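Model it.
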Amino acid sequence: MANKEEILAGLAEIVNEETGVEVEDVQLDKSFTEDLDIDSISMMTIVVNAEEKFEVTIPDEEVKNLKTVGDAVEFIAGLSPARAASLFTQLSIQHTPGTRRVR
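Modeled.
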């Protein structure tokens, strides 16, 4: 599993590729929507790319809680692939599959 600095760097690359936001502007305290001006469609793509890059699953229900870059880094850092799969399974039982929504 990557450390928090590696996760931040990887997430900054993903954000840059999806939105054009400069890598150095993607900082822990930055809000995805307020500071980086990321819309819900771009956020969905960022989440999918982060899941692939870091080999984690970020359940739909958790995406809405990832308000800042720091939130995303902490969430990814706290998940091992097995823990993420377990969490995803638990949440999937309680949720009907549907379109990802970022609120």
